[in-house]
Amino acid sequence: LGTNILSNKMAGWKPFATHTTALIRQRFPREQPVIITDNYYTAAQIEFAGLSNETYTLDRDKAVRDGRITQIQLWQKDESGLSTALNRPALYINEDSTLTVPDKHDLLGVMCQHVNSIEFIDELNLFNGDKRFSYYLADRIIDRASQPNSHSFPCPYPPRAWIDYPEPDAELSNTENIRGWAYNEDIGVQAVYLVVDDQRIGRTQYSIRREDVVETMNVQKDPNAPILGYSYSLDTSSLSNGLHRLAIEIENLQGTSYRYGDRVIQVSN
After folding, report:
1. pTM as predicted
2. How far is residue 182's CA from residue 179's CA, in Å, rounded to a whole number?
3. pLDDT tens, position by position, 158-189
């Protein structure tokens, strides 16, 4: 049908169910996990598909907006319901395509308060990335009432980053200094790569002190701080004149990679 024809809220749930079922069989061979989601709609689709009847959601904003929060609370399917599933393994699912990076960061922070340990295990991209999910395995749910200060470490936060230069639609020529910053709370950044037209073209120098980023972004637990800045000297003569796509790819110290800052630039030599 093409893009923008059907709402992504309504589409893609069959391949999601197939993928999630296979992942549960592979990663939880001994005990069926409880399933926790970032939004109530994903939790409902999991139950509709028969994947589990032990689903919970951390959702408040969407559930309040859609008038579902009271129902979810009465059914004990909200965050407070996790107290009924203590010491059970859990599969946590984020629908990344509906979240900003700060939203995802905050939700993972909540999850890390409820489990002993948690790790990123998989992702699913549908409709050319218009619908995206990330999956996390938690070994067991803990009792927050008796361990109020507990926090799984490291928490698998997504990295946060910025390209200071060039801005979108910038015109580049000769040799240009590509620069910005990146950090990953609890984990740290191993490398930042420059990506042009979907291809890595080089590893940046990740060695610049950025106290301003530490202060502005309230960076607390990145082991590299305040060394959070990167730069790359790009010889634009290696690129054809015209439009190109530029981004960075961040590899954290757990070996997980994330793409950031995709933009169009114009090369004119």
Report:
1. 0.87
2. 10
3. 999 999 999 999 999 999 999 999 999 999 99
